[in-house]
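Sequence of 3'-phosphate/5'-hydroxy nucleic acid ligase (Deinococcus proteolyticus).
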Amino acid sequence: MNGKYITKLGFENRAVGLAQQAARVREGAGLGRTEILDELRTVQAAPERFTQGGVYAELAAELLTQRAALKQATSAALRGEPLPYGVWGAELIDAGATEQMDVAMRLPISRAGALMPDAHIGYGLPIGGVLATENAVIPYGVGVDIGCSMMLSVLPIPAGSLGRDEARKLLLKHTRFGAGVGFEKRERMDHEVMHEKAWQDQGILKFLHAKAAEQIGTSGSGNHFVEFGELKVAGGELGLEAGEYLAVLSHSGSRGFGAQVAGHFTKLAESRHKRLDPAARRLAWLGLDTEEGQAYWQAMNLAGRYALANHDQIHARLSRALGERPLAQVSNSHNLAWKQQVNGQELIVHRKGATPAEAGRLGLIPGSMADPSFVVRGLGNPESLSSSSHGAGRQLGRKAAERSVSKDEMQGYLRERGVTLIGGGRDEAPQAYKRIEDVLARQTDLVEVVAEFTPRVVRMDTGNQDI
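Predicted 3D structure, token representation.
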């Protein structure tokens, strides 16, 4: 059969040759042109019906491949302009973070977004970015440290009654920091999260269970910390009498387990969107109507629970060492995705370095190693997708901080504020961060301050020596 009849039906590229081959076979079986063209139209309309064998099987498979490629190319096309989104504290946010948010709001799956005042450049979605998508989750919209989170424990001990030397010894003995670090097997504590059935549901989770067990109750590097300090509370807040209490504040995540989950599913998402605009490559997504999307959703939530289990154990060790039980605790994740109603529609809200701030919900917004942190209550502002900042936010990158902040300047800042530091480095110098007071002042319509925490003895990664 002449190829012009086949191309008129809309067949393209390799499908034309395959249709001609099938047509010749059918001609040999005695069918006329009209009958063959009718059959080709039927295959074209429903190729999935012809893939199991027969003369049209190879053509049907090619048509399905072409359709999948077309769907991917279409879905990968970015909007010409970003959807509108709210920005808090625009004057505090570098242009690079805004550009990243603009790209995210051009994704075909994006429906709403917001940028918090602590925002700065990240991988894919900026740190401080909030993005709502329809029926899709973006691994790098959650981040590498899945479930990165905060926890505060308020102890029945008056502020100032724990000496600095004793606090330092407790932190050195009962906390662990750094890549690959864990407690010795005889020192490990058990936790219910390690016995969840989800670990057995996926090969990658089975593989990472042992690593997670080794590192539970520990903290990573970078800006992770555990610190003793003083919490000033107004009467009735947190169920406490007004006063100043000894408290423990920690910042940790899902450790090597979460990082490997993030890497695995990010590569998978990128492989499914090879035609995605290079500017949005790290924003590749997985549909929640696919097995891969459901697998990531399960793994992400497990990593989030595991991250909070790390905090549970950090606080349990220190409380037990002090012979006390916490009077109150507050915790929240700030690197996760949630199913949330937005304008009457269920969307997937990614918070990458943003704190959930639904009306009445308590959260934690830390400053730097030497600046105050705050317990806040969410106001449920729909314009921010009920979100707030997750901290002060960097104003200097790590290398820039090391170049521009001297050891003497960093020590002077700590000394002026009465902070003892274990570990840490100039890449985490307080001067590398925006002023937490400035950040809070830009989001008074998102949260209200409930209590203020002042750090006194802080432990971070990079060793046991004070800076």
